[in-house]
Amino acid sequence: MTPLRLGILAPIVSFVAFAFVGCGNANDPSGPNPAPLPNIVWIISDDQSFTDFGFMGHDVVQTPQIDDLAAQSLVFRHGYNPTSLCRPSLATMITGRHQHEHGLTFNDPEPGVRRGIANQLLLQQRPAPSLLAEAGYVSLQTGKFWEGSYRNGGFSEGMTVGERHGDLGLTIGREGMEPIRDFVQRHKDEPMFIWYAPFLPHLPHNAPAEYEAPFADLGLHELTLHYYASILWFDTTVGELIDLMKEEGEYEETIFIFIVDNGWVIAENEADRLVDRSDGTIRPPHWKSKQSQYDLGVRTPVLLHWPGHIAPGISYELVSSIDLLPTSLAAAGLDIPESLPGLNLLPRALHGEPLARNAVFGSIFRHTAKEWDRPDANLFFRWIRAADWKLILPEIENEPLELYHIAEDPLENMNLAHHPEQAERIRELRVRLDAWWSPVAESKDKSNK
């Protein structure tokens, strides 16, 4: 690595030489032996249940590459996305803010509103690539990205130029890794931020036959077989990405952060999922999966891997996708804006310091907005996970209040909300949930409908 990579800052040095200040800055600019800024790679799986990994205990799904990454990482087994839908989940990661704060609560605005208007919501934020650029980072967007051009996310380079899901960006992984290799080869003298969010294992579950072969004789439902094959395909691309960084001499100086955007559970009847009806009402959530308020929709493992710095281990502490940005800023030696609600996970990962958190929060909104500029108008559910308990508060009619003891009931099958002995617990959790909730409901200009 050349000295040019030192950039403007004196970055992170080694495990023992880290110095953290209260705001989360990981670097000491006055240090005598500044080390190179680490590359930062976010690996984002697309539509995969938290259960569907070998390292999470699944005995049929095959994820050998991610399992190997997990064996070398600090694994947070109780990670959460505040929402369980693609676009708002990705927007939460890149902004470090909950969806009612950044405003992108939906996949699509209401009919009659041009998508470009909604795309402007991200421009009102300071997304990860823009903030990291202050430390000299160059950034690459690949895979899923909803906000029009990669430039709208602050990336210096990217594959997506304007379509709904990510147009050319969606070929990454499915059609090789050359755009990433090209980027890495051109920027070896600079710290790099890489967004790897392939359209995998997302539908269409059309993995090549070689990925279906391991499951062919297991008697699986056809839909399940195709899903598992797509997971194995995604897993293979994760291995290819890590091998690429090794081949280019960047692996040892790279922090890898792995997460899933939202869950997925195979439903033989896809109408069982939580969907909007044409009349604007919704069907109750018959399936605990993507777009639902349950852990099979919102929970995810979170992996932190930094060769030679972060010791492998397992944590059962609560973390959230809002933590990715402050953690990355700290790694880059940047101050963390006080307005960001997430935590810097590096003190925990490097020194074992307990996280200053005992609850995470989330909310579930309409797939297609009723009013794109009023998050509260599109709200279905709010939820809080505090210690082992999870409260789900409905914001629509004819839906029950739900309370689950996640440690004993991880798939949320036994609703305890109507047990009299839980009344005080529900009251306390609801107070905390209401204190967290502060939707941005101000009306915005709709003149460009």
Provide structural commentary.
There is one protein chain. The chain is α/β, with parallel strands linked by helices. 24% of the residues lie in helices and 17% in strands. An 8-stranded mixed β-sheet has the order 4-3-5-1-6-7-2-8, sandwiched between helices. Strands 9-10-11-12 form a 4-stranded antiparallel β-sheet, with helices on one face. The longest helix is centred in the middle third of the chain and has 26 residues, at 222-247. The chain is globular.
Summary tags:
Alkaline Phosphatase, subunit A; single chain; 2 domains; 8-stranded mixed beta sheet; 449 residues; alpha/beta
Query: What is the CA-atom radius of gyration, in angstroms?
Result: 21 Å
Our estimate of the beta-strand percent is 15-25%
Number of helices: 12
Care to count the β-strands?
Answer: 12
Question: How widely separated are the two ends?
Answer: 50 Å
Shape: globular
Mean pLDDT: 85
